[in-house]
Amino acid sequence: LRGTTPVRYDENRKCWDVFRYEDAHQVLKDPATFSSKRGGEENESLLMMDPPRHTQMRALVSKAFTPKVIADLAPRIQSITDELLDAVQSDGKMDMVHDLAVPLPVIVIAELLGVPTKDRKLFKDWSDILVKGPAKNTEELFVQVMAERTQARQELDAYFAEIMKLRRQEPQDDLISLLLSADIEGEKLDDKEIIIFSILLLAAGNETTTNLITNAVRRLTEDQSLQQTLHEQPALVPGFIEEVLRYYPPVQAIGRITTKDVQIGDVPIQAGEQVISWVASANRDEAKFPDPDTFIVDRKPNAHLAFGFGIHFCLGAPLARLEGQIAIQAIARRLQHIRFVEGTPLTPIPSPFVYGVKEFPV
Ligand code: HEM
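Above: inputs. Below: predicted complex with protoporphyrin IX containing FE.
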């Protein structure tokens, strides 16, 4: 498709697909022409805002979600990872998804936000419901999913409202307390904005990081020599994680809507059209990445689009990278000769926009 129809209209889905790196880059770097506004004003999250509101909101939440806040989490992420690996090692078998890749990001986000430990299971269930795709076959199922979502949203709203009340009375060393106090020239976030942002962290941060970790382990089992390499040279792990993000990006595509008539490549597109930038394809574009289908552990440069590009560039990227690096470093240090349990069917996550598998027994 990159070679034949790099920009094409899909009649069935009523949207444009963009496959080349250069074109995806053009879309993502120009929010004035390619808008992120998809939802209504109600419950609008950062992800669906355009400037100037996006600029203000991003500046405010960035005050709480700083690189230092994230870097300080490293020792805690390390100990959670070790605890999770300790729990499964006795018989030498584990399911990477269930035993490590799912719980690690959920525990980290819950602790970061300041959610009590006992509520984690609840938290995970809510976040699963929120990211469950709407692409269901029958109308009945669709209605059921939407009803579940509405209920989960109401429960989460009530839950966070209670936590905010407590943090306002007695601030703690957590993200909710920081969000409550963050201000830029007197402007602060209101309760509703903090709730919507917290829910965005849940929805945007958990499943994506789960898939990053699982996809990384999958690479280690597909090419066993990588295990030895990373065991001997742990300093290669950050580059390895970047290459996993390029090669198996957890988020496969990013959507926008045109605000005016525009041309991508030599294809004219009218205002008001949906445009999907395929990260999965851009990351394998031979015009940008030499030998794109080869996994190169220390590929440089590696300007993949796994975290997007431009003003919406993933706010959680430092956290996702840190979790991925710590998890893989621990695996490379502690476990040797990890093998996928042959014969187990690999079930993909049932969404065209998410790349990962439901189970990965090793
Ligand atoms: C935005 C991917 C982890 C929070 C994005 C975008 C992508 C992305 C592609 C841009 C979407 C767009 O341009 O429309 C990923 C991947 C992750 C990951 C692949 C894991 C490997 C996280 C984590 C968090 C997070 C751990 C937070 C805890 C966000 C937020 C935005 C965002 C808040 C919106 C930023 C904005 O609109 O300004 N992410 N993400 N993400 N991500 Fe992530």
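The first strand starts at residue 7 and ends at 10.
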